[in-house]
Amino acid sequence: MTGDDLDRMLSDEDPLLPSSGFTASVMEAVQREASAPPPLAFPWRHALPGLIALIVALTMAVWSGIGALNDPAAGALVDERVRALIAFGTRPDIAWTALAAVMTIVPALLSLRLIRRRV
Amino acid sequence: MQPRTRPRSLTSHVGTPVSAEDDARAVDRVLQGDVAAFGAIVQRWQAPLVNLAYRFCHDRGRSEEMAQEAFLRAFRGLGKWRRDAMFSTWLFALATNLYRTEIRRIPPRTLSLDEIVALADSARTDAAMDEEDRRRTVRGALDSLPAKYREALLLFYFHEQDVATAARSLRLPEGTVKARLSRGRALLKKKLGGRL
């Protein structure tokens, strides 16, 4: 098979005519789109203070972490903090709260995922 | 779906000359709130967009669904069309991007080259492989190429072997498209070697 044969075969695709209702179907979808309320904008004005607080908190945490690593007593301090954290995490009320949070977040995420698939 | 006919060109509307000014005027009207003016754009570009989709998926029903989604996205994004390029260039790039994503998400069922050749063998009555069988085999080989080569070849032949237009549709530099075309053709010939 020559290059010309290949060119000819790949060029000569039998064209299709769209079905007679295609334009109407597209325009119906377009009209629906046009009459739908505009999507809600992300509330930056309300979220901004929280985002700034989060960035400040993260920066402070990283900064104090670096400071703690430079401290000779850092190992003991980290151990102590990890132990405190484990003790906190294994309290029964915390476990129940975490379970409740998971049971709230998982269905919410699943719903969002399903909606995204439909869109 | 109506019977197949052969328009003068896949990238121009069947029987009607395509004018860039007509597109710009229709877009202006839509942006001013005349939603119905979008119908003129759909009328003008439905055949090329459906045909391009068909080349990606080889399924008539799905190609119309994909083309409809491309028109919807174009409607939503009309304001983003910068008039430094023709409307058709923007529309084809948008549609191509959508079709590529769609095909990667749900690939069409493709037969292996051996299956295609076996089908052709069982169907033919004479000794020589007829034109339609050969074409089916070539298409099967094209479908089995890695996406980047398949898409470059597909767009190149859809745009009547115009590298620049294919590159604009794929939003890639011309050099990259030329390299992919060359590599894609070589792979295609290797796959087809001895089969035709």
3D architecture notes:
The complex is a heterodimer of chains A (119) and B (196). Chain A has 119 residues and is mainly alpha-helical. Helices cover 78% and strands 0% of the residues of chain A. Chain A has 5 helices and no strands. The radius of gyration of chain A is 30 Å and the shape is elongated. The mean pLDDT of chain A is 85. By secondary structure, chain B is mostly helical. Helices cover 67% and strands 0% of the residues of chain B. Chain B is built from 9 helices and no strands. Chain B has helices spanning 20-31, 38-57, 60-76, 87-105, 113-123, 131-143, 147-158, 163-170, 174-192. In chain B, helix 2 packs across helix 3 (60-76), helix 2 (38-57) packs across helix 4 (87-105) and helix 8 crosses helix 9 (174-192). Chain B is elongated and about 60 Å long. Classes of the chains: A mainly alpha (119), B mainly alpha (196). The A-B interface holds A 1, 3, 6-7, 9-20, 22-23, 25-27, 29-31, 33-34 and B 1-7, 10, 14, 35-36, 38-39, 42-43, 46-47, 50-51, 54-55, 60, 63-64, 67-68, 71-72, 75-76, 134-135, 138-139, 142, 153, 157-158, 160-161, 185, 188-189, 192, 196.
| Broad structural category of chain B | mainly alpha
Specify the oligomeric state.
heterodimer
Shape of chain B: elongated
Strand content of chain A: under 5%
Gross geometry of chain A = elongated
- Whole-number radius of gyration of chain A? 30 Å
Could you give the distance between the termini of chain B? 32 Å
- How much is the average pLDDT of chain B? 84
Largest sheet of chain A: none
> Largest interface: which pair?
A-B, 26 and 45 residues
Number of strands of chain B: 0
List the helices and strands of chain A in order.
HHHHH
Give me the count of strands of chain A.
0
Number of helices of chain A: 5
Cα-atom Rg of chain B, whole angstroms?
Answer: 18 Å
Regions with little confidence, pLDDT below 50 for 5+ residues of chain A: none
Structural class of chain A: mainly alpha
Number of helices of chain B: 9
